[in-house]
Amino acid sequence: MKKRTLKRTLTGFWLFTLAFLYLPLTVVALFSFNASNSAARFTGFSWRWYERLLGNEEILSAFANSMVLAIVSSVIALVVGCLIGYGMYRHRHRKLGWLIVLIYLPIVLPDIVFGISEMAFFVQVHRLTGFLQPGLGTMIIAHVTFQIPFVALIVYSRFVGLDPTLFEAAKDLYATPIKRVFHFMLPTIKPALISAFFLSFTLSVDDFVISFFTAGPESATLPIYIWGAIKKGVSPEINAIATLMIAAVAIVAAISLIFSRRRQA
Amino acid sequence: MTDTLTLEVADVPSAEVEEPTREASSIEMQGLHKRFGRDTVALAGVDLVIEAGEFFTLLGPSGCGKTTLLRILAGLEEADDGRLAIGGDDVTEVPPHKRSVNTVFQSYALFPHLSVRENLAFGLKMRGMPPGQREARVAKIAEFIQLGDLVERRVDQLSGGQRQRIALARALVNEPDVLLLDEPLSALDAGLRSQLQVELLRVQKRLGMTFVFVTHDQDEAMVMSDRIAVLNGGVIQQVGPPREVYEHPANAFVARFMGHDNLYSISARNGDRLTTPLGVLSVEAAGEDDLLLIRPETLDLLSGEQPGDNRLLATVTERLYRGSHAEYRLDVGQTTLQATLNNRGRRLPEVGDRVTVSVAPEDLVTLSK
């Protein structure tokens, strides 16, 4: 009897947590289909806000910026982070190996501190050299900087999980250093690379604070656009963008989860 | 899932399985030194010649340098000093991927991202063999090692014994000059282990390939090897066929490592009569050595007190009954002596019995400290 009560209580908690997390998202999704522009009353189903989206140049350009930023920064972060992850693995027994915690700084530092620092840095560099004018370029650099530790950590933990003798077996079986990279190391960590890429991608699309401080006048991303639009009041159009973003992130997260599952198997 | 272990390698008609025609290679090591860090000496000058086609075992306790020596042969470790030649060619500075040497690793080291078939073909692929030839060679080795449908499996679907056989096939398929085996059976349970010992031995004899085998198990070394090198502290203590190493150990370390406990210091000698803590014993030929070795299985136990030449009076203090034989711990005066008696239906002396130990002079061996 007692056990049953406990079980019911726990199920209740679980349902409450789910509701707490997903109810607001559901409300946004629901009102994105609202026929009227009321944020309080659902008057009927309609696609009109989605149609309005497609006709809004500003939104489309913000979306394009978000995609370019996310893809380019994720690709760069993947290459650099992969090399760093491998370096961390190779030198994990070194005396100064603990210094590598420095690479995790962007993970623990508050975004706003990170964003302001990047902005101050870019402004100085621009003032002194004329390079690094705030825009998509500076945003890509900033995003790569905070994505790298995640990629490096994922790659590093994949290497640590491997039998170290595998590296020797590859050598023993006539693989030259180049062939070891392409026939052993990269195929072995491929699932880790895929999930690292998707994580970087979602982090980039998600980011507002760092983007906000490093963006230029022409390089607003979706989150920056939304923030600007919301100052004029929440329109059902924003609900529609939010719904699309929720759907996109959910799909990417699901793919990433599938690959990390397969990695563990 | 059961192991599809078959021990009929020797029975496969040789017309079906074409044997490699290349000649086996010898290995020559000269003054190999290896140090790790400042203080750890792994090899302190190893000179050794391994003959072509030999099943050669490096035997010793952990940290004796046997694995380091094997890794130097593979090229995975570089010697600080000394030279190494395989098949007459100096390979001291040749990197592992350019040596015609393959290794069966202790952890098997099968690539998890590849199927069994791809694992088997890996070495051939890296050497640039075209796919058609690769498949033929893989099929040949799979038949030779009798892998059956294991070839179609994923690596994570294999048991320990199966992984071991795949690792062996993955190395052999390259037809290397020398095959190196780093404690390949140590992770397996006793039954599987002795089956695979037999299989490994048969494979080696049929291929006539030079095998260098590393183990810390002296029984395994004796069963498998043409010759054994016993290592300790990075130095070779003795090299010889199993019988020689077991019956005539070069020194106290080798004797103890081969499982001998009956070692007695010689305090005085008079011709072939040696004074030991057990008493005075005659040997066939007494050199200048200072230790006497009595192998337990050479002793005979007579009931009661029957004094005579080369006989010792003793009391049984412990008996371990092993079925086929019994192991005895005896007190000869203040000194302990171990004896092994075959169980041939006679009465086995019991704890507390007074017995007479009969020692044949030709079975006694002297050795240096």
In short:
Chain A is mainly α and 265 residues long.
Essential attributes:
heterodimer, A: 265 residues, mainly alpha, 11 helices, B: 369 residues, alpha+beta, six-stranded mixed sheet, five-stranded antiparallel sheet, 32% strand, disordered N terminus
Can you describe this structure?
The complex is a heterodimer of chains A (about 260) and B (about 375). With about 260 residues, chain A is mostly helical. Chain A contains eleven helices and no strands. The mean pLDDT of chain A is about 90. Helix content of chain B is about 25%, strand content about 30%. Chain B is built from eight helices and 21 strands. The interface of A and B includes residues 163 and 165 of A.
Taking the sheet with the most strands of chain B, its summary is: 6 strands, mixed
User: Helices and strands of chain B: which structural class?
Assistant: alpha+beta
* Distinct helical segment count of chain B: 8
User: What count of helical segments of chain A does DSSP give?
Assistant: 11
Low-pLDDT residue spans of chain B: 1-18
End-to-end separation of chain A: 39 Å
Shape of chain B: elongated
Strand order of the largest sheet of chain B: 6-7-8-3-9-10
Query: Roughly how much helix do the residues of chain B carry, as a percent range?
Result: 10-25%
The best one-word shape of chain A is: globular
Query: Helix/strand-derived class of chain A?
Result: mainly alpha
For the terminal residues of chain B, how far apart are their CA atoms?
51 Å
The low-confidence parts of chain A are: none
Name the helicity range of chain A: over 70%
Give the strand content of chain B. Answer: 25-35%
